[in-house]
Specification:
There is one protein chain. The protein has 14 helices and 28 strands. With 594 residues, it is α+β, with helices and mostly antiparallel strands. α3 packs antiparallel against α14, α8 runs antiparallel to α9 and α13 packs antiparallel against α14. It has a 15-stranded antiparallel sheet that branches. A hairpin with a 3-residue loop joins β7 and β8. The radius of gyration is 25 Å and the shape is globular. The longest helix has 20 residues.
Amino acid sequence: MTLRIEDYALIGDLQTAALVGNNGSIDWLCLPRFDSGAAFAALLGNKDNGHWTLAPKGAGPCTRRGYIGESLVLESVWETRTGTVKVIDFMPQRDTSPDVVRIVEGVSGSVEMSGTMRLRFDYGSVVPWMRRADGHHLAVAGPDSVWVRSEPDVKTWGQEFSTRSSFTVGEGESVAFVMTWHPSNEPRPTLVDPYDALGSTLDDWAEWSRRCRTGGQYREAVVRSLITLRALTYAPTGGIVAAPTTSLPEELGGVRNWDYRYCWLRDATLTLGALVMAGYQEEAGAWRDWLLRAVAGDPADLQIMYGLSGERRLPETELEWLSGYAGSAPVRTGNEAVKQLQLDVYGEVLDALFVAREAGLPAEQHAWELQLSLLGFLESKWREPDEGLWEVRGPRRHFVHSKVMAWVAADRAVRTLERHRSLHGDADRWRAMRDEVHRQVCEKGFDPVRNTFTQSYGSVELDAAALLIPRVGFLPPDDPRVIGTVDAVREELGTGGLVRRYSTDSRTVDGLPGGEGAFLACSFWLVDALRLTGRVKEARELFQRLLALRNDVGLLAEEYDPVAGRQVGNFPQAFSHIGLVVSALALAGEDTAG
């Protein structure tokens, strides 16, 4: 039976991550990086595509689970007829090789445990050769090798191309399993002591979480979201992936299934702002530095997303041997949207670098020259149609949000030159561009009859991205056009009290069949828009509703289906958790001001 998306929890080591079901099964794990092939891919197919289940024999979902303190160490507890047992799952921050550690601890009575490890490299398509070596089970296929051992050694046997185990734990007893990936051409990796690794992992997360400088009633939600963002960070470069998964559907059974294991420029400003507001200057600096490296080069070659290290080629491929989550095919790796023209990303980059400078991050000498180069290119291109921030696969349009972000780009340049007189640049030139963009958007992107900004010039469709207009400063929150837009988006794109990105009733916008759920980041944008327009009580009520949509360990996917009452889309989603942090800190500020 397919688990719901919210039945999974996340563990990770800041270079890759695994999803652990509430039934004790690890159903997704890419090795050695977020964007590598999955060794466990049952999430997007079935058990034959790879999983590692460790649970009481014959048991169903765990009785309860949660992260230990402010960490990414997961503890799942089963209360059975014969006793109580817990399984502790985590990935220690690696020195060289990624490890997955699973510790079974007897709490009371006596519990018979059952384990099945079915390794399938390359997204469930390659069955490795298994053998015993140096007290380990060793799986090898092509470039991949996985070493598995238990302490103490437990009864194991091979069955149906998997490794099975069976053992019993009593009160106070424990059995630890360690799985380590390593290149198959290299010697056995260094052994990890599972109990020392548990202590150091808990210490690492506790030390990191203590740096969060936000308090108030939303601290738990904020810290959990920040831990999630930290877990989605590729530590060697500072890049932050949008999600650790690919092809979890935006509509159950539908085709809107995309690979999100890359770094999007659209997330840059909000991520930087959230990290700075919460006190994580070092992480904000690492993200800023990743951004500068990724976008360096010819401004005409700027992409909307990049690989973990700034890679530019992300070819999209369909994995036909995987049936898809809950039958939602196709399963895709790579992302063809990387080739799209999305003019808003220029504004996102310049806004992010503006935020970084204003936050006091150490300036990079070449950063300003790069910004001027990007702005010069945008000056010649902003009047053209594009695909917009939602990466629609329909025809190009004059998307209002893209034009607004062109205004942001010029505005941030002007403000930077006004505040930092030592920098060179033609403020009058960018001021003129800013004014021209503003006039055009207000003339062509606003529907005076309905009193709302539209999705694109001449269209009747709305777009939740218009909720960002007051936040980026394009118009003040008390402008009647802003208030009208907030009300119109709420009315026309609302679903179950939440907000969709745009209407998918026709295929004229994105060129795809089917629909999607409410977009959680957009729903947080509505929280912010309500707060900015003076409706703080309504903002707080919506925020509480959004908090209630988190799963039992505090995680959010990309979207929520209010009809099915389920999370949908890739999981956990950085954009959703960034929205949560930004809204929470703003509402906490209202409390302080009050």
